[in-house]
Amino acid sequence: MNITDFKSGQWIQQYQYKGFQPNHVNHTWLVDNEQLNYMLSRANILLGELNAFSTLIPDVNFFIKMHITKEAANSSRIEGTQTNVEEALQKVQDLAPEKRDDWQEVENYVTAMNHAIDELNKLPLCNRLLKQTHAILLQNVRGEDKQPGEFRKSQNWIGGAAINDAAFVPPHHNEVVDLMSDLEQFLHNKNIFVPDLIKIGIAHYQFETIHPFCDGNGRIGRLLITLYLVSERILCKPTLYLSEFFAKNKALYYDNLMMARHNSNLTQWLRFFLEGVIQTAENSIDTFRKIIAIRNEIEHDKITKLGKKTKTAQQFLMYLFKNPIVDSEDVSKEMKISISTGLRLINDFIELGILKEMTGYKRNRNFMFKEYIHLFE
Q1: pTM
Q2: Are 235 and 60 in contact (CB under 8 A)?
Q3: Which H/E stretch holds residue 325?
Q4: Domains of the chain, residue spans
Q5: For 3-287, which CATH class?
Q6: For the segment 281-327, what is each residue's pLDDT rounded down to a tens digit?
Q7: Beta-bridge mates of residue 158
Q8: φ, ψ for residue 174 (rounded to 5)?
Q9: I need a labelling partner for 220 at 20 to 30 A (CA). Which of 105, 160, 295, 301 fits?
Q10: DSSP labels for 326-363?
C-alpha cells in the first residue's frame, strides 16, 4: 500500500458510544513522498553517526544510565508526573514525601526499560515482552489495579470525563488480541520491505491507536520505539529516546496521531515522527560530544593535579558518570575505602570544581556532578 492511500479504519457503534477500529498494518508500504524520503535519509545518517559514538566511546555503558533516566523522567512527565532528572537520580528517602510517588513511577520506567533491553537477548520484540515490561511499569504505583502485564478486558478512552465525552475511544477490548497480533507480525515480517524508521513510526501510531492496556499505553508505546531500534541492530545501545521531543511538542504529537486516525493522514504523522528522530539524534550526538569534552577536561586538566591519588580519582570519575549524585557512604562502598577517605576524595572533587554539595546540611550531605547532569536536563 502507498502511504498516501492509507485508510485508517472505521468507527464502530457500541453501546452509547463509537469506538475506532483500526485497519491491520501487516502488509508492505510504499513511500513515494519526496519529503518523507529526504527526511528518512537524513534520519538514517544521523542514527549511523549516533551509533558510531556508542561503539567508539570506551565505557559507554556508564553513560547509558543517564540517557535512560532522562527518558524515564520525560516519558513519565507526559503522563503528569513532576519528577525531573535531578530528582530521579536521588534516593527516595532524600526526597520530600509528596514527591515520592512520582519518583517511583520514574524509577519503575528505568527498571522496565533495563529489563526489556536485557530480555531482548533472549526474546524477540513481542507482545510477551511488552506485557512483562508493562507489569514492571505499574508495580506499586498509580495504575497497579489496572491489570498490570495484561491486555485490557474492558473499554478505555482518551480525554473527557466519560466515554461519551472522550476525545478518542480505542477499539473494543475483544479486538485487542487480534490487532496486537497483527502489529507483532508486522514488526517481524521479513517478507515485506519497509524502511525500519517508517515501520516503527507506523507501529507506534498503531500501538497508541489500539491502546491495548488499561493504563501506561503512552509510556510503553514510546519505549517500543527504542526497543525496536535496538532489536533490529539499528542502534547497538539504547541511546535514542523521543519522549523529550514529544513532551516539547505535546499538542502536535496528539494532533498528528488524531489526524492520522480521523483523516487517514499518515504522511503528516510520519513527517512529525521523522522530525523527532532527526532532532533527537542531533541532540544525542551533541550530548555525547559534550560528555567526551567534559571527561577529557577533568582527566587531563583537573585529576592529574591529585598526584598519587589520580588512579583512584579516575575510578571515582567513571562512577560519577553513572551515578552523578552521591553521598559518602556510596563512595565508601563503591570504592572499597573508609568513609573518611571517601569524604577526602569528595572534598578533592569539590575543590577541583567537579562536585557541589547540594543539601546545605552539615550531616547526611549529598554531592552532585552538576555540569554532567546539566547535559541531560
Answers
A1: 0.92
A2: no
A3: strand 325-326
A4: 3-287, 306-374
A5: mainly alpha
A6: 999 999 999 999 999 999 999 999 989 889 999 999 999 998 999 99
A7: 168
A8: -70, -15
A9: 160
A10: E-HHHHHHHHT--HHHHHHHHHHHHHTTS-EE-S--SS
